[in-house]
Each structure stands twice: as structure tokens, then as C-alpha cells.
Amino acid sequence: MAITQAAEFLATWETGLAQAPAGRALLLHRAARPDLGGDQRALLALPVGEREADLFALRRALFGERMQVRLECGACGADMEFELDAGEFGRTLADRGDPLVRVAEDGWEVEFRVPGIADLTAAARDADPRRALLARCLVTAVRDGRPVSADTLPVAVRRRIAEAAQAADPGADVTLTIACPECGEPTRAELDIASYLWTELDAWARDLLLDVHLLATAYGWSEPEILALSPMRRRYYLELCADV
Predict the structure, then answer these.
(1) pTM here?
(2) Per-residue pLDDT tens digits for 216-229
(3) Cα gap 102→166, rounded to integer Å
């Protein structure tokens, strides 16, 4: 494991224990983007696909390239296990288009910005999330040269906006399609990298705290002293303890 800032990530894990999934995703994104200095508003304003790319990059830095994924076949119920490349996913999702989408059709001219995390969160609280998201992210809408409101946009134009936004930010929806080795039928599933990464961080933190307990018991060292050791040296001392 390539974690060198053990105390910092333990603190992130500890804070996240009391958080809902959205809060944990924000904590992980903050760790992935130290260049933003923990600015929550800046993080929430980023396009969804950019956050996903950042989290894949963080996952690669902490736990390596290979991701083990388990999925149940939607047709026969067989348990499927396969590997993904976190680095390749991160590089693919980093290829984004212009965050300002422009659509022109049948006299309608629309500018729409790619939604950020804050937009999706706010829209989800509305009785009509699609309408709310369109209203939040619509920059301009013109019909035959005259400004119009979001509510007047026809279904065809709204569909074009959704398609253009997806093309501009493909990482906003990371969906896997896996053929079952048992029955051959394809299964589609969303890959939630924030949830996946949190599960790995949780397992790492609990294992590390057990290591701290064993080394503190054996040598009387404090937690900061133990965390200051490299993972290799901690493992070597643990092996010495086991040999006693």
C-alpha cells in the first residue's frame, strides 16, 4: 500500500464514520484535491465527472491500479468477479468537453452548464428533479431570437441538452456492462467509486489501528510514533512480534 500520510487518512476515516455517503464522498474528494485547500464550495461546483476522475486517481495513489469488483448477474444470479484498472478509468474520465453545452434546434438556442455535485444534490430535493436541474443549470434560452424560460423548452430540446451534457461529462455516469460467464447475459451496474473507495479506506484504517494496538502493546510506542514508520517497517516489527 502506498499510503504515506497515515495519520491524515486516519483522521479522514474517523470523520467519515459519522457521515452519510454524500459527506464521505466530499471528504474523499477533499483528500484528492489538496490544491483547492479544502474549499467545499469549489469542490461541490466541479462537474460530477471531474470528481469521479479525481477519486479514481486517489484510489490509484492509495491502493494501486487493480480494482477487484464483484457483481451479481441480473439474469441467473451468478456471482461475477473481475478486475478493473483504476488508472485507465481515471485517464478516460479526465477527457471532458466544454462545461458549457450549446444546443440549437428548430429555432431554439440554449446554453447549459454541466451540472456539479451541488446542482445534483439540490435538484434531488425537488419534487421534479429533472425540471429543477434544468432550471439551475440553464444559462440562456432563446426562441427565434427572444429569451424564454426553462419551462417552455420542448421535450426534443431537453433531450438534446441531456445528450450534449452527457457527452461533455461522460464520467458523470460510470456504468459497467458485464457478460455473465455462466449464462452469457449482460448485466449493467453503476460503479460508485466514492462508495468503493470508502469501503477500502475503512478496511485499511481498521487493519492499521490493529497494527498500532499490537505494536504499542509490544514496544510501548505511541500512535504517532507507530504511524511515522513506513508500512514496510511496521510489517517487519509485527513479524518480529509474532516470532516472540
Answers:
(1) 0.86
(2) 999 999 999 999 99
(3) 12
